[in-house]
Amino acid sequence: MKQSILTRYRVMAYITAVWLLVFTVAIVMKYGFDTGDTMVISQIHGVLFIVYVVFAFDLGSKAKWPFGKLLWVLAAGCVPVASFFVEPKITKEVQPLIARDETAPVEA
Question: How sure is the predictor about 26, in pLDDT bands with cuts at 50, 70 and 90?
C-alpha cells in the first residue's frame, strides 16, 4: 500500500467533515431561524461525500478490511464530527501496513 492512498483518504475525511458541519449549521439556520438556503452547501457536500466514499473504499480494499469495518468508516462521513475521531484511528492502523509494504523487497 502506498502513502498516497492514505493521504487522499485523510484529506477527504477532513474536508467532508468540515462541509458536513457547515451543512449542519445551514440546516439549523434554515429551519431553526428561518434564514438562508442549503441548496449549494448540500450539493457541495454531496459531491465531496461521493469522493470520500470512493477513497475510503479504495483504502479499505487495499487494507483488506472486513465489510463491517468499511461500513463503519463510511458512516463516519455521515455523522457530524465523527470523521475527526475515526480518521486518526484509521491512520494509526494503516501506517504499519504502509511501512511494511515500503520495506518489503521488490519482486522481479
Answer: very high
The model's pTM: 0.85
Beta carbons within 8 Å of 15's beta carbon, 6+ residues apart: 48, 52
Residue 78 is placed in which grid cell?
A: 455521515
Over the stretch 63-89, which tens digit does the pLDDT of each residue have?
999 999 999 999 888 888 898 999 999
Cα–Cα distance for residue pair 77/13, rounded to 1 Å: 7
Question: What Å distances lie between residue 62 and 30, 59, 65, 80, 86, CA to CA?
Answer: 41, 5, 8, 26, 18
d(CA 107, CA 22): 47
- Position of cell 501496513? 97
- As a whole number of angstroms, the distance between CA 29 and CA 37 comes to 9
